[in-house]
Amino acid sequence: MITQYFDTSIKKWRQLFIGLGLLLIVLFALNISLGSVDIPLSSVIDFILLRTPVDNSWHLILAKFRLPKALTATLVGGGLGICGLQMQTLFRNPMAGPFILGISSGSGLGVALIIFLGVEAGLLFELSVIARSWIMVCAAALGSFGILLAIILASVRLKDSVTLLILGLMLGTASSALINILQYFSQATNIQAYLMWSFGSLGSLSWNELMIFSVIISIGMIMSIGLSKSLNALLLGANYAESMGVDLKIIRVLIIINTSLLAGTITAFCGPIAFFGLAMPHIARMLFNTTNHLLLTPLIILIGGILMLLFDTVSQLPGIEATLPINAVTALIGAPFVVYLLLRKKNIHYTFDK
Amino acid sequence: MKLMHTQSLTIGYTEGRTNKVLQENINLSLASGEIISLMGQNGVGKTTFIKTLSGLHKGISGSVLHQDRLIDEFSKSALAKQISVVLTEKPFAAHLSVIELIALGRHPYSNWLGRLSTSDKQAIDVAMNQTNINYLARKKLYQLSDGQFQKVMIARALAQETDLIILDEPTAHLDLSNKIEIMLLLKSIAGNGKGVLIATHDLQVSLQLSDRLWLFNFNRPVLDGCPEDLILQGAIDQTLFPVNNNIDLTTGTVKRLDERKGNVLLQGDPTMVHWTAQALQRNGYAVNKDTNSLISINCIDCIWKLESKDTSTSFDSIKDLLMHLK
Amino acid sequence: MLLGCEKNKPINKLHETLSSQSLVYATKFNIQEDHLSVMEPWPGSKSAIDYTFESIPQRVVVTSTTHLPYLELLGLEDKLVGFVGTNNIYSEKINGHLKSGKIVELGINGKINLELLLASQPDLVIAFDLGGESTTLDKIVEAGIPIVYNSDFLEETALGRAEWIKFFGYIFDERKIADSIFSSMVERYQYLKSLTQNVTERPSVFSGVVYGDTWFLPGGKNWSAQFIKDAGGTYVWEDNLSSGWLELSFETVLDRAREARFWIGVASINTRTELMAQDARYELFEAYQEQRIYNYNKRIGNNGGFDFFESAYARPDLVLADLIRILHPELLPNHPTYYFQKIL
């Protein structure tokens, strides 16, 4: 009887995943078709079918700008989503997101140090010009991994997850405060440069950077899938999980490494993208009514990509020459969407109060 | 076969650098097919003991052995195949379906992707059949009643296919019919050859279900014996009710609250006698076979006949009887 | 002060009849018989402010590096006692005064420190306000120190902006010198402009760099964009009406400017390698491939200060000459560029 249940269940989910995969492809195509420059659909189709001559301006835009941006958006959406999922399960807190351990503040601090102290540090070139220098990426990555290291060292010694959470919040707050101080003593141009970084940007990766980025994110995603089983066990609580064979210390460290790898890399390459990682797991749980990480993880990878592609398409404000920063769109559209879902679904049960 | 035994085990917890000892020098063992209830007042170390036995907590000294192997020698995964637990904690997310939760019990067996093999599915099947919850399979956790939830958690432990199952307060918060169901379930689990250890406050469970009791006391050695022996020795009284010794252990009721109103001679149908005596005692009468009692009640066929001095009255309910006596 | 000599320079008869009271290009201030009026002291201000001066200020504080060249042109740098944000100053002379202690730092990076300001006992502060809060400036007035608002950045033409030398000339009673300097400069400017009137080809020019996803470049009516037309070029966005800065997506800029001949003005970038490090897709521009990128980084101080951001507003003739040299080198074959150089 149970086998029957599983078989129908598997069939249902398989259909769903195929459907989502198709939707992802459709949105991907939509995303590369729309942008500030009006490219006729026929040219896009030509491009997809590999028919255009290499020299055409539109072809360049599609190949060098829209395609890498769409790929970035797909990876970022999925990556941030599963980070959020893991943090919410590990800390048993529905308000946790990928940056709850202070990762994005750490990144910001790395970037701020480079921007604001670059001249003082005697670097050869003044870095009020930013966003795509490798130094910038490294600075952001080092900043976030610095925080990560502190958290991991702490997590080995602290037994309580809530304490870890508070530690992360404090580190994040301290980093933000340091950034504020740096800004206070800086020139307007540098402040603006930092501000531009903080808006987040999906479109600034070159193909080289995208290759490295996709490798790292893919590793992170595979690791997440591998951690799903233990995350499921964690749903019952630390004691139950341990009684089922989960090594809590190791799993905690692995989850933190995985999240920081994904969130830190994304922030290093694309700047801090807020809200998305926090909202995505809730959207997935509400839409598909499941808490099973073995299903949620691939689900979020797909839906995260789909939604981020959608948000990016909107932020391009197709037809108008101006664009919106991605952070604005994720929050402006994302938040009402979550509210809508919350109000529509009457059987939301987050806490298990009986 | 000894499933689990302890050797000079001292349990407690570490605060800073000092050890706070809760129980010391514990030497107990549990065999397959046995149901053992662990009892004691709050704070005496029952939960700590359970956690130490299941590897969730380290003992201060001495050793725990499962199937004659030291607990430290087991890998986490191997230990999970020896012992499963049912605790009082609630899961974090309530959207899990019943079958998904039970499937979690296969954690030590399924592959890294969580894929369930045929034997995994069989184990789940067996567990659900044994606990009689097939009809709940698709329900979500938040849709379950307390009793159903408890059965699901036991099913999960069963799916883990361990020789020893440890339960912490499995019947707390359950209504009577659910409690009885759980008790019967545990009995059948032991009947199938598993060892069952229950930490409980519930006398009904411990006295009616268990093969043996373990009693934890403050600052005294652990007591280990069959329930009836321990009752007769007065050990249960001392362990559980050191202050108030007014409990009638056969019925679990508080004895003789108030005995000012005199004696009553009570005869008649045994069941009616039993419950009438209860009502009379609750109202301050002592019930005995003293023929010199002023009041004599005879109960037959749902009629109570009261004879006192020269009067004789009949009632058709205990309520009326009591009203008259007041 | 060398204003440039070219042979066969025609004499401009207008030069002699320019009176100090008529401003030819500037619209945001004017000079009356007995007072100076600033029409729009800060952006959006509806009422003008009139200033009169009983005596010549001897201890002046200025608040922007763009104020310094006017002082220097008029030989007034000795009157400077304090400056806000001295780490950006290019001028050697003024840096010398700074070192010797004659000029005091009054606040790091643009934030006026009131205590230091009061301690330096100025008798005039030349300030600017971008339209935001001016509580600091209000406090300075409260302390009894006179403030004059300099809103030269609101001028819409390059010559109009440069005409503000007369603003300084009025305040420090050097009107004649200011007039003469300005007239010579206008003469030279018009002469240079006339050189390009009959060019057959007007090469296309674009500007700016990308920050993240956004490309910042001057609007069609921006100060820098106007020079391009006068220099015989076509700014790709010349039909745009904004006098500020545009924020466009990279692909939009690529779409319109991919085949533009010249790329002039790339912020703090100094080499093509740096450009590539910032974004590899810059190589898609023909201007990149053909190595026709120019920047205003020829004159940078040890402290990183750009002379371009300091003195160019006062010397539009130098800027125009540079641009003509870049766009039509055959018209000024012997002219070494002043602010601009090629990016290699």
Search tags:
heterotrimer, A: 354 residues, mainly alpha, ABC transporter involved in vitamin B12 uptake, BtuC, 13 helices, 73% helix, globular, C: 344 residues, alpha/beta, Rossmann fold, 2 domains, five-stranded parallel sheet, five-stranded mixed sheet, 16 strands, disordered N terminus
Verbal overview:
The complex is a heterotrimer of chains A (354), B (326) and C (344). By secondary structure, chain A is mainly alpha-helical. Helices cover 73% and strands 0% of the residues of chain A. Chain A has two domains: 12-76 and 273-354, no CATH class; 97-272, ABC transporter involved in vitamin B12 uptake, BtuC (Orthogonal Bundle). Chain A has helices at residues 2-33, 41-48, 57-90, 103-117, 134-157, 161-184, 188-198, 207-234, 238-243, 248-270, 276-288, 293-315, 326-344. Chain A starts with a helix and ends in a 10-residue tail after the last helix. Chain B has three domains: 2-82 and 162-244, Rossmann fold; 95-159, no CATH class; 263-325, 3-Layer(aba) Sandwich (Rossmann fold), CATH 3.40.50. Chain B has eleven helices and 18 strands. In chain B, a hairpin with a 2-residue loop joins strand 10 (212-217) and strand 11 (220-225). Chain C has two domains: 14-188, 3-Layer(aba) Sandwich (Rossmann fold); 204-342, Nitrogenase molybdenum iron protein domain (Rossmann fold, 3-Layer(aba) Sandwich). Chain C has helices spanning 14-17, 68-73, 92-100, 114-119, 135-142, 158-162, 165-171, 175-195, 223-230, 250-257, 272-278, 286-289, 307-311, 316-327; strands at residues 29-31, 36-38, 49-51, 60-62, 80-83, 104-105, 124-127, 147-149, 204-206, 209-211, 214-218, 234-235, 245-249, 262-264, 293-295, 341-342. In chain C, a hairpin with a 4-residue loop joins strand 1 (29-31) and strand 2. Classes of the chains: A mainly alpha (354), B alpha/beta (326), C alpha/beta (344). Chains in contact: A-B, A-C.
Oligomer designation: heterotrimer
Derived from helix and strand composition plus strand pairing, the structural class of chain C reads: alpha/beta
Please tally the helical runs of chain B, counting DSSP H or I stretches of 4 or more residues: 11
Rg calculated over all Cα atoms of chain C: 21 Å
* CATH class assignment of the largest domain in chain B: Alpha Beta
Q: What is the distance, rounded to the nearest whole angstrom, between the alpha carbons of the first and last residues of chain C? A: 31 Å
**Biggest β-sheet of chain C, characterized?**
5 strands, parallel
Strand content of chain C: 5-15%
Determine the CATH superfamily of the largest domain in chain C: Nitrogenase molybdenum iron protein domain
C-alpha-based Rg of chain B, rounded: 25 Å
Mean pLDDT of chain B: 86
Count of individual beta strands of chain B: 18
What is the CATH homologous superfamily assignment of the largest domain in chain B? Answer: P-loop containing nucleotide triphosphate hydrolases
Low-confidence stretches of chain B: none
Structural class assignment of chain B:
alpha/beta
Which range does the strand content of chain B fall in? 25-35%
Q: What does the average pLDDT of chain C come to?
A: 87
